[in-house]
Amino acid sequence: MGMVAKNRFYAAFVLVAILSVQETSASSRFGPVISRLRKKSDPDVMPFAKEGGPLEVSLTLNIINIASVNPKRGEVEVLVWQAMSWRNPDLAWWPPDHMNVTSVRIHPKYLWTPDITIFNNARATEEVTPPIASVDSYGTVTLLPSLRIRVLCDLSDMTLNRLLDEQMAVCEIRMGSWTYGADILTLVEPQSENLGTSSYSQGSEFNLLDVRAKKNVFYYPCCDEPYEDLKFFFTFSRKRQVNTWSADGGLLHEKIRYG
Ligand SMILES: *[C@@H]1O[C@H](CO)[C@@H](O)[C@H](O)[C@H]1NC(C)=O
């Protein structure tokens, strides 16, 4: 072996050695907990609430941007951070027995996840972020996807409301379980301090004025059990200076006029 080849061989050996040390130390800390979760969790089996009641699923939304508003089609496109969490006691572990690991990240395909759906979707929702679930040692599972949502909203009044000399509208995002009744899965209404407008993009064409959530219970003619949904109401206005822009996406600019 020549000198250069020898050095290369040595460098490659050192690199492999470093990588394998990192690999070993990473897997020795989180690996056993993750393997255990994969073994214990059946994605088809819903967690059983210990108290015997329905499983509580917490659900909040943070609106990041109102990306587009189409009054003609009655559609609003919104970018949101959704936070969903519930507890599966079967997944819990005792950190002192597991290198003090208190939480891990795992692909949600290994876990049961609630079938939370947007009911007033105008088009399919896009998940913008990679799917990752966080599981803590109490068995609390949290999903925090970033979603591009298009909801149906009646915007025909938008031309008439002129409070603050800005066209305002109130739209809602209505979400709930697609298949479970409230006797099996119940939604936790978000605390008002977890809503709000602080994550909202300042550069947006629209002002986000208010966000609030309301839980509703209702019955279908078919069934005895109650069903639930959460409505997230958001109030927004179009920023005034937008009116002076040369319209490229046009509809809004043509449709909505001052005076
Ligand atoms: C776990 O934490 C305890 C208390 O802080 C500590 O005594 C112990 O050495 C830790 N174990 C490991 C494996 O780091």
TrEMBL record:
This protein's UniProt keywords: Signal
Under the heading InterPro entries, the entry gives: Neur_chan_lig-bd, Neur_chan_lig-bd_sf, Neur_channel
- Identify a single GO molecular function assigned to this protein: transmembrane signaling receptor activity
* Any one of the GO CC terms: membrane
Q: Name one Pfam family in it.
A: Neur_chan_LBD
Tell me which positions the record assigns to the signal sequence: 1-26
Which PANTHER family does the protein's record reference?
NEUROTRANSMITTER GATED ION CHANNEL
The name this protein carries in UniProt is Neurotransmitter-gated ion-channel ligand-binding domain-containing protein
Q: Which organism is it from?
A: Elysia chlorotica (Eastern emerald elysia)
